[in-house]
Specification:
Length: about 210
Amino acid sequence: MLFITFEGPEGAGKTTVLKMIKEQLKQDGFTVVITREPGGSDISEQIRQVILNKENTLMDPWTEVLLYIAARRQHLVEKVIPNKDSNKIIISDRFSDSTLAYQGYARSLDIDKINTIQKLIFENYQPDLTILFDIKPEIGLKRILLRKNETLNRLDKETIEFHQKVYDGYQKIAINNPNRIHIVNANLSEKKVFNSVYELIMNLIEEKKV
Ligand code: TMP
């Protein structure tokens, strides 16, 4: 199994590129499983409803952390770990770096404490590769506002200062994990972003001999 995660601020185009990558890898003959966080399993999708519900304005920041981690635990146990010995490529739209960027850096919670909890629950479980979609918050937010039919969730509705902190947080996380995290410029055309992401994934496939 290869476990790959896509990370980045809102409106970075992760989900669109994920669909394109899935199609390409399938055409190449690989077995690909696409999943997302919070979500990816029935129970985790139910937790997602609670977390993102914009009526839940009273949610305590640590409750938020614990809900994301609960959703992640369930997702990991149901969707990722059972495939450990298979030759599948599992790609998750977000994973634990999101908790560090959004709850740790943007909500200014204690990063060491979040790391300690995640270590306890996930025993250092790390993706083989993480692709960070790099887009400035003002551009990303403009993109989601322009998308018709998109209802903003509780996190989308945070201030631009919050999203700037998410952005800065991701940059720090990337600096701290240079081997795992690769940054792609998400300002470029979809095709160019796709090409960069595809190249990174093919390099990993080559390296791990999948
Ligand atoms: P999505 O819109 O990319 O599906 O993600 C849902 C929102 O949840 C998005 O605003 C990012 C946020 N999020 C966190 O704040 N912490 C996390 O751990 C995860 C996985 C997502």
